[in-house]
Amino acid sequence: MSPVVIIILGTLLIAGMLWMKTVPAHRRGAVAFKILILLLVAIIVILTVTGRLPWMGALVAGFFLLLKKYSAVLRAIPFLRYIFGNRKTANTQKNSSSGFQMTRQDALKILGLEEGCTSEEVIRAHRKLMQKLHPDHGGNSFLAAQINEARALLLKE
Description:
The protein is mainly α. It is about 70% helix and about 5% strand. Belongs to the TIM14 family.
């Protein structure tokens, strides 16, 4: 490899290591994986541009490197069910603890809000209810979970 390529790859590696230092310890494995993928992509691009790797090989290698990214297509199968079948499931969020499907209207009703509310109003209503119904203040964990799920559903959209 030419010195320019080595300098570019070294710079990317150093930048990645500095980035890794700023990340909390429990996320360093994911960051190391991202750095490795970025370095592999950079090497493939450099080899392709310099003519050492045919374009078809670069496409195949890029496909395999980005396969994890495109695996989201498999997760889109429920969306395809929304398109071709029951349209109600697209507006719901599954609660893993109870199996209850919460709709946007349910979330608004739980927080005592109306359609068209702002994110600040959602946060304010959530905070007010959690102060009253938090398990540490005499409430129960089921109600707290429902309030948190309603907040998450409304802020996600």
